[in-house]
Amino acid sequence: MISRSNFTLPAFDSLESQRKRLRLLSKAAEIGDWSHTFKTDITIWSEYLYDFYELDKNYNCSTLLASTHFYRGSEKEKMLALIAHVTAEKTEQAAELMIVMDDGRPKWHTTTIYPMLDEQEDLIGLYGILQNITARKKSELELQRMAIVAEKTNGIVMITDPEKRVIWINNSFEKILGYKSEEVIGVDPGIFLQGPETSIETIREITRSLRDTGTFSGEILNYTKNGDKIWLYLNIAAVYDDSGKLINYVAVENDITLIKMAEQRLQKAMEKERELNRFKTQFVNLASHQFRTPLATIRSSVDLLDLRTESTNLSTPFIEFFQKHKAIMAEETTRMTELMENILDIGRIDEGKIDISKKNHPFKQFMDAFIQSNIEPNGQQRMLNYHFDAPDRIISIDEILLRNVLRNVVSNAFKYSENKQAPELTVIFHDNSYLITIKDYGIGIPEKDQPFLFQSFFRASNAKAFPGSGLGLMIAKKLILIHGGDISFASKSGNGCTVTIQLRL
Questions:
Q1: Where is the domain boundary, 255, 288, 306?
Q2: Residue 434 — φ and ψ, nearest 5°?
Q3: Is 60 exceeded by the pLDDT of residue 59?
Q4: Any idea what DSSP says for residue 375?
Q5: What is the mean predicted confidence (pLDDT) over 188-206?
Q6: Which neighbouring-strand residues pair with 166?
Q7: Residue 132, phi then psi, degrees to nearest 5
Q8: What is the percentage of the chain residues whose pLDDT exceeds 70?
Q9: From CA 297, how far away is CA 293, in angstroms rounded?
Q10: Are residue 364 and residue 500 in the same domain, yes or no?
Q11: Could you tell me if 106 and 10 are in contact, meaning their C-beta atoms sit under 8 angstroms apart?
Q12: Same domain, yes or no: 243 and 309
């Protein structure tokens, strides 16, 4: 028989060991306690309270109200009312309270205060238990904010657990997809949202992205409860707790079905347009070939007739009549030839068959050479006021393409300013770009015509008396754009026109 007086507790069950275990349990559970005796007016804290209030162990907690400075406004009033009630009624009371640390951080806790009574049921002190609920409170507040946002948004919001089982959906989920909450809670959304045309690769990409980054953004084809296809844009994010443990996935989904349908219609329209362009190009090539032969024949026949008239004794009036109409035929055949070439150029540009061959050139050298080549059909130099007011830098350009554009614009400047002051061509450098301006003092462009100037076959209302096809400026703009530059104009009717070509270094 072992007597209690001889029984010795094991070392791990010593008083000190019990205290140590108690401290560890208190810290793990984030629970502390305190006691206050009225007779001595002394308050005693357990070790965890110092941790919760983030105070040094030397902090003087000898009075009951020592810690209440952490409570502000209504929270302090609530704490004092709690103490007053327990003191007056001699019954335990509990409350949820918030403190604010010196750096502004909020912390929450539950406090339960018990009355300490003597044998005569007289109140001799208070005993309190505090539990830290900051982590839980933050989660609750975050969920509340999330729920408010989710219910206000028109998009679909869904929250799943780490195993991707639905735990919450918003009202838009029900309205758009047709599923009620009780039908989907606890179910993997892939089971009821995905269908035969849902991309397997997209599903795999979602899995990979969530595994590697914890997020996914992209499109997916899903199905409503009624079996209708619906395109959704997904934004999925993993949610972790303070320890880094995965706790939820939050998915925000927007219905983009109308956008996808519009894209598909646009794709079909673009394909149809490409097919029409192919037919157009084939037709233009065929027509051009068919026109070139008779045009060349007409020009040759006119030349033969011209030779025949020189060797035949014809009257002067007849020869003058012939020469007049010969000039008309020559001009018209030339115009038709240029028109066919312009139409062919447009076809090549639209089909992307214009090859840009850029090479590095000193830009002043290029422009000087262009000015020297600016001659009339009879070989005479055309009067053009030229100013190169820019640094001479190396620029990557397609010489042939750019020369053709400049020739077209300069020819227009001469054509629409006959018997007027000579046009001006000026080059300046601004914002890492060369700006080439061609200014004439001719008929100008009426304001009502200006929005249409770069359209096919459009000619200004005051330009009918001048030869032209209405394609030159449109071709020039297309060529400059694919060259990487830009072209614009400024004009007033009767006050000339200024065309500006921008070439970026």
A1: 255
A2: -85, 135
A3: yes
A4: B
A5: 92
A6: 160
A7: -75, 120
A8: 75
A9: 6
A10: yes
A11: no
A12: no
